[in-house]
Amino acid sequence: MVKASGKRKQRIKWSKLYTFSCLNPRTTDNDAPNQQLLGQPGFSRVVFCNQPELHKIKPQKYPSNYVSTTKYNFMTFLPRALFEQFRRVANLYFLLGAALSIPKLAPFSPASMITPLVFVVGISMLKEAIEDWSRFLQDMDVNSRKVKVHSRNGSFVEKTWKELSVGDVVKVNKNENFPSDLLLLSSSYEDGVCYVETMNLDGETNLKLKRSLEATLSLDDDVEYTKFQATIHCEDPNPNLYSFVGNLEFNNGTYPLSPTQILLRDSKLRNTEYVYGVVIFSGPDAKAVRNSTRSPSKRSRVERRLDYLIYVLFLLLVMISVVNSIGSALVLKSEAAMWWYLRLQENADSPLNPSKPVTSFFLQFVRSLILYGYLIPISLYVSIEVVKVLQAMLINKDMRMYDELSGKAVEARTSNINEELGQVEMILSDKTGTLTCNQMEFRKCSIEGISYGGEINEVDLAASRRMNVDVERYRISIDGSDSTGESIEMFEYSVAEADAKQAVLGCDHAIENSDIEHRRIPASGKEPNIKGFNFRDDRLMDKMWIHGSNVHDMIMFFRVMALCHTGIPVEDGNSKRLKYEAESPEEVTFLIAAQEFGFKFCQRTQSVMFLQELEPSSGIEVKREYKLLNLLEFNSARKRMSVIVSNEAGEIFLFCKGADNIIFDRLADNGRIYQQATTAHLSNYAEDGLRTMLFAYKKIEVVEYESWNTLFTKAKATVGTEREELLEHASEMIEKYLFLLGAVAVEDKLQKGVPECIDKLAQAGLKIWLLTGDKRETAMNIGFACSLLRHDMKQFHLVLSKEAESIVCLCLAFQAVEEDILSQIRNSYQEIVKGNKKDVPSALIVDGKAMEVALRSEISNQFLQLAVMCDSVICCRVSPKQKALIARLVKEYTGKTTLAIGDGANDVGMIQEADIGVGISGMEGMQAVMASDFSLPQFYFLERLLIVHGHWCYKRISKMILYFMYKNVAFGLTLFYNEIYSNFSGDDLYDDWYMVLFNVLLTSLPVIALGVLEQDVSADVCLQFPALYQQGQRNICFSWKRIFGWILNATLSSVAIFTVTIYIFSPAALRQDGKVADLAHIGTIMYTCVIWTVNCQIALIVTHFTWITHVLIWGSILCWYIFLVLYGMLPPEHSQGGFHILIEAIGTAPMYWIVTFLVVVVTLLPYFIFSIIQRSFYPMDDQVIQEIKYGRTDVSNKPMWLREQQNSRKRTQIGFSARVDAKIRHLKERLRRTKK
């Protein structure tokens, strides 16, 4: 049976069935200008078919089919990677410091300056190399795929993709990707037709029909290519996916080519056993590759601001160095000559030479630059790199972002931009495979004005719960009859208030019995799970529809569903049910649904279709034969499809399906019986985000059909520009006076949790744009399904007229088109400005052709100004290149952090161009994942990635940098104060080992704990209060106000540490025996105060203590004392002033411990007082929540906790919650009006 079905399938000549030009390309007057361009600049490519050796020498030498997406290669890695590293301002500063340390001008050895720089830069370059190596492995996987290539003797041998050359003839089998851009020569079908899936290119799930030229149809076997030769003249490589200009010279004839014959790289062969094609564009010349972009280097906003902070600290460093140098020079010139005991005149090379004040000034300036370099420590970047890697590891290990179905978890593919996750304001999302599952499901239908197949939608259910907690389901009808279909709303009321609600409505409503409702919706699990069929209604299932009052119209409805299509049945060996292959997934869904209702489409030939129908009178399935007379196919212009068939009795019927506005215009006066009810159902289905289509039919008399068919046959045979017009006129003649049967609603199934995720992201203040290659109607349906659109939204459509589209295609009169688009933009903008004053939500829907014009530099700013003002933006029919361009322009125009998320190769450019690229590891391969910064198994994990981990990472990195700056400024300024205090003597206050260990051991580990483990609130609270995310969007935690506040805090701390220590120990004895403190003692005591102060300061900053945090903070202080003991045990020639300094000198002095305690209290008191005042009178959102949580008010006063959650929500116009709010307002208004 399977084999027989396959043979029948091969014998079908699709071109005999199809009518319009999608399968009958002809040269028209519109094509003539394009054909005349051949041979001119931009249209100069020549391809010698089956002669690839001619393309390995000039002038027709073209690149190989090898494709690389790596950032570096062997030759460019070192210079480019070094350039990337020294783009960082701090690295340039450290390079300068290392260079200055070589002439021995610095107080430290050159090794201590050069080694850290080499280590930091080396680690960063190693990370870049590892990330680029993964891209190289992905390229190797793609370039090593196999394809069959003609080997000049009539046989085809397997070669890797990278070995292909222009001119090669290849054979591609079913479900294989095309290795390059090919010219279709023939296929397994006799008339050269094939189905192509372009999901990776444009995101569309509908299969595209391609057809070869009639001249090459005979090349349908391997041996036919032994002597095959031809020449192609065509356009040069370009990124335009939807156009192609060229001709084929073959057998002394010239044949024009169009996009219908072009098979693009990265698209896939479907429903066709094999095709033959010749390579036109290879490797980097392929249109898909031309739509891709190089991997960019991404830096977060925090890191970019850190560069400016480095400028500020460097300016402070220069000022301190200048003051130090001037002071030193003045002291040398005025007083140093009297210091004969220092013998400064005898050492000419000394930086302190009174006879050379200018030289001394310069040398002292260089020395100061290096000495006070602790203001800009290289360890900051080491710590940031370590923290980001650990943060990425924690993100990867989050089990709440693990998908059990796929066995995949979230993966942070780069750690450079973790904190950027907490500052996202714009999300650019793909549709197919990202928001949707690439699965269609039959959900609902309306037959004879009665709606079948479903409960009330989630929005109505949520609205009813908000208005009335104790709910049971009722359906309120105007006249008590469900058959009218004029239902007010699927709305829920409580039993106690049902009568009162009816009185408010002011009319006699019928409340259907609950047993009827339960009869409609079977218990969960009663029906088998059938892929593509998610319909539950006992009135139709299990042959129950045969008991209806008007069975005839139901039968006709199911016949339209089972006959009006281009599908092919494929037997499933494991089931009695048939599977189907068709041009669009909707057709497959209709066929599956018809099969479940008792109308199984089981076989087709060139002219006959066979149905296994359920006979209502007997309940027995009967096989019937329908002769296919004509097929008027669906296309974007017609928006309908019709078949004309005759049954076994010789009766002729036209079955039609199409868009509602198209079908309604073609109904007969007596065919509108169900129009009002069906219109109401369509509105409900569309609000649920379902794709809808109307079914209609009419009976045609034999005489009428014969007369029309004569005219139609004549129109099909016409050659020339008037052919399309004649065919359209003929179809208009027959597709009228129809009788409406009903409507169907199909769900483009969303991924799990998508509406809830979008709702939460909207509450967090993020704007979401939908960028898809699908047509406008499909994109809008998904917009409604995931709550990006609402029916009360003011929709602005930016589209080109048909005349303008033809102008764009012919590259003529662009100015007129731009004026048209600019006028639409201005008018829409004015309406939005007026609407915003009335709080009217708005949405912008842009078509791909209009987008192409709107993104031109002349009017792009006006377009973006309009788009940014809208609450929701949906861009349809956009190419991969346009997606990337939109991402770049939005990022540049708004200056906001932009995140792009997608799952296919067509999303790679957008993912790379955005500030953050997220790839979905779904069904469309790994291209998007490999190009992304983060990968997710499901879209809804984006909620936790941003609102929880993004918020945490942003606050952690911000706190970490501010604290790092605080501790180093406080430490470095004590050195500067000592220089002033000692008359710029140049004496080192601290031992060299103290200086080294400050950032390496004694203060570095608590900083890492802060950057990895800190949480202002828990993950659950982050999700309950999404408005907390706006702290990152407003950059509150790393604002200049915060930065200068911490610099001021560090300055006050350093002053307190130095003055208290100096003015206590300078005039008094250190110990009871009268011994005073020398420089080594003072330095060690002051250093102890610094260690205690900065570690206690971080304890005040931390809001989430763990045992690790405690160990690292207090352990760092303990390490200082352990070091002093061990260091003091070394011989004096090694420990110098530190010999037994703790055990015998300062440790035995009570004043040492008292001063340490006093300094810590005095130093931290200002910050402590400021924190109390700020939290008491000017608390931030997270601080309020902390007080509630720590006071356990969330448990003792649950209503208050819920009220705080409600108040924290950002008012938004998109998302599920916004739709529920709008529905409640709508229902209350209707109740109010009805009451009046």
Automatic annotation (TrEMBL):
Tell where it localizes. Membrane
Q: Which domain of life is it from?
A: Eukaryota
Describe the location of the P-type ATPase N-terminal domain by residue ranges.
Answer: 47-114
Q: Does the keyword Metal-binding apply?
A: yes
Q: Keywords, A to Z?
A: ATP-binding, Magnesium, Membrane, Metal-binding, Nucleotide-binding, Translocase, Transmembrane, Transmembrane helix
Q: How does it sit in the membrane?
A: Multi-pass membrane protein
Q: Which residues cross the membrane?
A: 308-332, 369-390, 961-981, 993-1013, 1043-1065, 1085-1105, 1112-1130, 1150-1170
InterPro entries linked: ATPase_P-typ_cyto_dom_N, ATPase_P-typ_P_site, ATPase_P-typ_TM_dom_sf, ATPase_P-typ_transduc_dom_A_sf, HAD-like_sf, HAD_sf, P-type_ATPase_IV, P-type_ATPase_N
Reported EC number(s) for this entry are 7.6.2.1
User: What does it catalyze?
Assistant: ATP + H2O + phospholipidSide 1 = ADP + phosphate + phospholipidSide 2
Q: Which Pfam families match?
A: Cation_ATPase (PF13246), PhoLip_ATPase_C (PF16212), PhoLip_ATPase_N (PF16209)
Please state what class of enzyme this protein is.
translocase
Ranges for domain P-type ATPase C-terminal? 929-1179
Q: What is its main location?
A: membrane
| Family, as annotated | Belongs to the cation transport ATPase (P-type) (TC 3.A.3) family. Type IV subfamily.
Q: PANTHER family recorded for this chain?
A: PHOSPHOLIPID-TRANSPORTING ATPASE, PROBABLE PHOSPHOLIPID-TRANSPORTING ATPASE
NCBIfam families, per database record: ATPase-Plipid, ATPase_P-type
Q: What name goes with this protein?
A: Phospholipid-transporting ATPase
